Amino acid sequence: MSQIFALCDVNNFYVSCERAFNPALENKPVIVLSNNDGCAVARSNEVKSLGIKMGAPLHQIQDLVNQHQIQVFSSNYRLYGDMSNRFISILEQFTDQVEVYSIDEAFLGFSGFHHHNLGKHTREIVKTVKRGLGLPICIGVAPSKTLAKIANHYAKSLAVPGGVLGLFSEYNIANALKNLPVTEIWGVGRRLSERLNRIGIKTALQLRDADEKTLQRQFSVNMSRTILELRGQSCIPLEEDINKRKQIVCSRSFANKSDDFNLLRQATSYHVTRACIKLRQQQSMAKSLTLGIRTNPFSEQDRQYSNSISVVFPEATDDTSTMLKASYQALRKIYRDGYLYKKVSVMLDGLVDATSHQADLFNRTPSNPKLMNTLDNINQSMGKGTLQFASEGFSKSWVMRSERRSPDYTTNWTELPSVK
DNA sequence: TCTGGGGTCCTAGGACCC
DNA sequence: TCTGGGGTCCTAGGACCC
After folding, report:
1. How far does the CA of A299 sit from the C1' of C17, in Å?
2. CA distances from residue A177 to A3, A153, A170, A188, A202 in whole angstroms, order as listed
3. Does the C-beta of A193 come within 7 A of strand C?
4. A364 pLDDT above the threshold of 60
5. How far is the CA of A177 from the C1' of B18 (A)?
6. For the sheet containing A306-317, what is the strand order?
7. Is the confidence at residue A359, as pLDDT, over 90?
8. Beta-carbon neighbour count of residue A341 at 10 Å?
């Protein structure tokens, strides 16, 4: 029996979250900015039709913003994260086969459901999310994940009534693929599209009908999977396990560039601390830490420098002090005088399960799990940053801009929306 | 003056071993 | 002085995703 997948995603997620709590934004052009208020990462349909692209830097579109009175928000990840959790809980009421794919998207599986009821069932999901959260969503339904993505794309771009579009019949599938450029296919980005175009494959239909074995040799096993998926043969299964992250990255650009070693050290300590909290939350330990620093690659007048270095621990660890020491030594090794730095990043790799981790007999990497536990508990119950390591510094002068953030409507008692 | 921050997977090539 | 072939593991880098 062939499988059935649905891709549900929230339209213009961040913008829709802002609108859910501020109805005056409805039908108005709205954008939400990246961290540091750098560029537009979410755009309302009104903004898209003005031709503003995903990732457009704010300073380049400032004229359009003024001219069309576009409402501009800093990103408010606490709010979006909380809305995302609520969205997933609603989906879980409709099927037990749920893969959370990103903050605003989930794949659903409908094995065992009857085909003919599915239209009604999925339209009910759209209505329930709208009623419960005020968020508009669209759903694409098809026999493979790749086709479900495409169905979703059309559900949105054609503004299909009910918000749901299914792709099952050979006729409908061929029609959908005929005019779809290969770059719109899930898993085919800019580079691969260029290469496909060069050998005469421009549309999704042409790719579907190409020789799969030849393309596998020429590209990779992923390309062959994509081709089969376009034919309606599912090759990419639903991943329901909440799998632990295999790597943890914490990085931020500075509000202003700086050559101050101490400031870099504070930013490094801050990222290491956050990364370790995430690490302990998922009950993992890391075998290595990679520290990266770089200047601003967009600046033409500044001299450029970027470098990174990895530290491998004698034994996997989740101890913040151990990591802080290692990161400080790493920073000293790659820091060079005379450059204006813009970003520090910390990556933890080689993650292993903390609960089954065997301690080294000679315990060469001492750690203090009790202390870490206490620290995490206090910060969780009394608020982030209540206790911190001194090396993070107290001024946080490098911290990013976030000048137009909306209130934490759903996660902070003092910022609950009020009804007059 | 101002350009984000996370992730995943695959492959090629080197190191190393027998 | 001559010096094979094949396997595994690890890592860096490239491609993709949202």
Report:
1. 27
2. 20, 11, 11, 14, 11
3. yes
4. no
5. 52
6. A248-258, A341-353, A284-295, A306-317
7. no
8. 25
Strand B–CB A221 distance below 7 A:
yes
The predicted-structure confidence for A226-264, as pLDDT tens digits, reads as follows 999 999 999 999 998 777 899 999 999 998 999 999 999
* Distance of alpha carbon A312 from alpha carbon A301, whole angstroms: 36
Bases along strand C below 7 A from a protein CB = 11-12, 14-18
Q: Would you list the domain boundaries of chain A?
A: 13-78, 80-230, 248-392
Statement: the CB of A188 is under 7 Å from strand C: yes
Q: Is the CB of A319 under 7 A from strand C?
A: no
pTM (2 decimals)?
0.92
CATH architecture of A248-392: 2-Layer Sandwich (3.30)
Q: What is the pLDDT of residue A360?
A: 58
The model's pLDDT over A93-152, given as tens digits with 9 standing for 90+, comes to: 999 999 999 999 999 999 888 766 899 999 999 999 999 999 999 999 999 999 999 999
Residue A400 neighbours by CB distance under 10 Å: 16
A66 touches strand C (CB under 7 A): no
Strands in A35-193 per DSSP E: 40-43, 71-73, 98-102, 105-109, 137-142, 164-166
Cβ of A248 near strand C (under 7 Å)? The reply is: no
**R_g of chain A, CA atoms, integer Å:** 24
Show which positions of strand B are touched by protein (CB under 7 A). Answer: 1-11
Query: Which nucleotide is nearest to A192 if distance is taken from CA to C1'?
Result: C15
What topology does CATH give the domain A80-230?
Alpha-Beta Plaits (3.30.70)
pLDDT digits (tens, 9 = 90+) for A190-230: 999 999 999 999 999 999 999 999 999 999 999 999 999 99
A312 beta carbon < 7 A from strand C? yes
Q: Does domain A13-78 have CATH number 3.40.1170.60?
A: yes
Tell if A38 CB is < 7 Å from nucleic strand B. yes
